[in-house]
Amino acid sequence: MENCKEQLTRMLGAALSKACGATNCDPNVITASRPEFGDYQANGVMAAAGRAGLKPRDAAAATIAGLKDPEGLIASTEVAGPGYINIRVADSALLERGNQALAAPRSLIPPAPEARKIVVDYSSPNLAKEMHVGHLRGTVIGDSLVRVLERLGHEVIRQNHVGDWGTQFGMLIAYLRELDGDASVLQAELADLESFYRAARQRFDADPAFADRARLSVVKLQGGDPEYLAAWRRFIDESLNHCQGIYDRLNVSLTRADLDAESRYNEDLGGIIRQLDEAGLLRENDGARCVFLPEFKRKDGETLPVIVQKSDGGYLYSTTDLAAVKLRAGELGADRSLYVVDARQSLHFQQVFAVARAAEMVDERLSLEHIAYGTIMGKDNKPYKTRSGDSVKLADLLDEAVARAYDLVLEKNPDLDEEQRRQIAETVGIAAVKYADLSKNRMSDYVFDWSNMLSFEGDTAPYLLYACTRIKSILRKLPAQASTSSLLRISAPEERALLLKTLQLPEVVNLVAKECYPNTLCQYLYKLSGSFMRFYEACPILQAEPEVRNSRLALARLTEQALEQGLDLLGIQTLEKM
Ligand code: ARG
How far is ligand 1, taken at its centre, from the CA of residue 342, in Å? Predict the structure, then answer.
């Protein structure tokens, strides 16, 4: 079923087009920016009127006069300012929609009219080292997007484009082979991949003979030597186990089946160079093979090359990404291909996308989108690091989050038993870290701040989870004759505001699917919780007469549904108690 915004858009679009004597005018319906303006407003009249040579207020009046509303969605409209239309939705329509959602909770977010095939590249760490704080954003933002897209009925193909190939693996293999004599030593060393990497690096810097063995290892690996391949696989496997541990703990839906390792493309890279050559795009530059596209210029006006093969024959990150674009467009048959990757790689993606289009590796229809995100900063406004200047391991960060959440839960609810408290702390700690990230506009950098994210006040996971437990506890203690099955009437403005808000969940979810900003959903959930709190303060539930009581209980249940489904799309689990 259409949500309110879609239905209003359709109805006003038809009336506006008629008023302007045009086709497909966009009324640009948005949720009202202030409650005085009603529930929704149409901002698109001025532009359409301008094109038709009409006075905007006249066009607005004509639109209203020509509105067809057979289902009675609209209670009232008014022309405002230079030609906006303010719209108030009918209470009866809100009640009817609310009751439909109560009867079938999943219908709160109906599927998109057209299911698409969407590839989402996210998380994608380099396997040479442990996952660190720099991988948090791509992992949680990407996972929220795949949840949203799947929920709307799209076919999502996750691609975890891990870095598992390249010269640094030579060093790791050489070190691994050195330790291989003693299985227990090796196992212990591999338990901490970060120190394994550091130890290998030290060997490499200190011992020229080791450095030679490291370089030889790269050659052997690339030549397909079985022993070196086995050592490499061993390391990669260990590193992937580590990632999986992080994903599971973060409630991130990636599994090994979603791997799209760089090494997967080794055999395809020669073909990519050939294809670029056949398309007449290749040029030699200092022995390297490059693609020059006029749209990429340096500051001095020189065209910037995209290097696809080094003079020694080696391939680059961009070559692999071209092969990946091709797979996603061709074999995987994507309609849309998203890359949830750090904003610092934005030139890389612009170039890869442009080269792929120039070489006709993808056709017009495929939308290639870099879903960029900013950096997590420390209090000093520099990228977040440990005190000693090392990168913060994600595993340590999550441990600390849970430890801090434990203290918070202990303070809030000292009566819980130990086991319960540990479980709650795990959920709250992880949720706090995820929500703090997801609630920021992904394009901006943000400062990592424990006390903010673990507060019960403000736009935080503990606040939202607490709101959820409040509702659940109301619904757990129902009096004997109470029913939560239907909304019967709206008897207070706080009730109406809350009902309208719950019904707007699908509108927000559609926006997230389109524009890929999960913070829009966070903002919505925060406002929804606030709206619930206001309702809860203003409207007595159990003391009210039975019909009002039941209707309010049903509204509480609908709110619980919207909150829970919304949080689930962020990959955040709710609690019964906290
Ligand atoms: N492994 C890369 C890195 O750590 C990110 C890969 C992103 N995906 C891609 N298709 N390039 O920087």
Answer: 9
Q: Which fold has domain 4-89?
A: Gyrase A; domain 2 (3.30.1360)
Closest CA to 59 of 10, 18, 30: 18
Q: How many residues does the chain have?
A: 578
- Å from CA of 15 to ligand 1 middle: 48
What is the per-residue pLDDT across 148-194, written as a single tens digit (0 to 9) for each?
999 999 999 999 999 999 888 999 999 999 998 778 888 888 888 98
Token pair in block for residue 207: 């011992």
pTM, rounded to two decimals:
0.96
To the nearest whole percent, how much of the chain has pLDDT over 90? 92
Atom of ligand 1 nearest to the CA of 345: 12
486: left (phi over 0), alpha (psi -120 to 50) or beta: beta
pLDDT digit string (tens) for 112-128? 999 999 999 999 999 99
Supply the mean pLDDT for the chain: 96
Q: DSSP class of residue 486?
A: -
Q: Are 443 and 374 in contact, with CB atoms under 8 Å apart?
A: yes
- Give counts: helices (H), strands (E), the chain: 21, 13
Binding-site residues, ligand 1, Cβ < 6 A: 121, 124-126, 161, 163, 321, 324, 339, 341
In angstroms, what is the span from residue 438 Cα to ligand 1's centroid? 20
Residue ranges of the chain assigned to CATH 3.30.1360.70: 4-89
Token couple for 488: 């019967």
The tokens describing 52, both together, are: 């038709």
CA of 261 to the centre of ligand 1 (A): 10
Q: Which of 124, 327, 328 best tests ligand 1's pocket when mutated (most atoms within 8 Å of CB)?
A: 124
Q: Are 355 and 282 in contact (CB under 8 A)?
A: no
Angle, vertex CA 551, rays to CA 549 and CA 553, nearest 5: 70
